[in-house]
Amino acid sequence: MAKNEEIRLQKFIAQCGIASRRKAEELILNGHVKVNGKPAVLGDKVTAADKVFVKGKRIIMPKARYRYIMLNKPRGFITTMSDERGRKCVAQLVADVGDRVYPIGRLDKDSEGMLIFTNDGEFANKVMHPRNSVYKFYRVTVRPSIDEEQLIKLETGIELDGKKTAPAIVHVLEKQDGRVVLEMILHEGKNREIRRMCEAVGLEVARLRRTQIGGVKMGMLKQGAWRDLTEQEVKKLLANPLN
After folding, report:
1. Mean pLDDT of the chain
2. What is the set of active-site residues?
3. How far is the C-alpha of 38 from the C-alpha of 6, rounded, in Å?
4. 46-48-49-55 Cα dihedral, nearest 10 degrees
5. Which of 68, 40, 41 is nearest to 52 (CA)?
6. 186, 167, 179: which is closest to 240 by C-alpha?
7. What values do phi and psi take at 42, rounded to 5?
8. Residue 112: CB partners within 8 Å, gap ≥ 6?
């Protein structure tokens, strides 16, 4: 809870671990709650700076326990925390984290690689917001081959759904008969963007793996495994390694 963020009093009491929201409402209605020395009424809102007393004892919002997790997502998992159709989802891979965390952005079912999870909403918004231009690095295997014209189109932008994609950075890493490995660097996050860009220039994506977000690389993390980010990595996630 941010210092100046207002929330309903019953929610504040519940987040302090005193009672459920319903029980907190009963406490308020029965006159057991005071805010800044005055009897509280249902509908009151408070901030972390307010002095809240329940049955004469002051309660204080505990400090948030933020987690920042890196997962190496395998193919075949959808980026959601639950699925009504019973498909495999990334929630299964972070079930043992110990805190409720949510993915920042997504990778489609057939893509793999680096996913970041957190319970810090403000941080997630910063990573996702277009103005911060957090670059994502992908290793993309395409078929059958690629020429200069296709490279230029990918780099300058492709029209998808009536709107041109932002410029990308594309490097050819390997070139063999019938396949090419590219590094593609983007800061947009449109649904299946790389696959659709490649399809638009006549390329088939055989494999797509995200290897880096901002200044943080996935490294040797095993598929399906997760680890906590270091404090330095959390800061580097918002850094632009291209500057």
Report:
1. 91
2. 108
3. 18
4. 70
5. 40
6. 186
7. -60, 130
8. 72, 73, 74, 75, 207, 208, 209, 210, 223
How big is the CA angle at 137 (ends 136 and 139), to the nearest 5 degrees?
145
Q: What ranges make up the beta strands (E) of 64-134? A: 68-73, 102-104, 112-118
Q: What is the pTM of this model?
A: 0.75
Q: Where are the beta strands (DSSP E) in the chain?
A: 7-8, 33-35, 38-39, 45-46, 52-54, 57-59, 68-73, 102-104, 112-118, 136-143, 159-160, 163-164, 169-176, 179-186, 204-213, 216-217, 226-228
Q: Take residue 25 and report the two structure tokens written for it.
A: 């409402």
CA atoms of 69 and 100, how far apart (whole Å): 11
Burial of 194 (0-12, 13-18, 19+ CB in 10 A): buried
- DSSP bridge pairs for 168: none
Dihedral (Cα; 212, 217, 222, 224), 10-degree rounding: -40
Reported as a pLDDT band with limits 50, 70 and 90, residue 19 is: confident
Helices and strands (H, E) in the chain, number of each type? 6, 17
Total residues belonging to the chain: 243
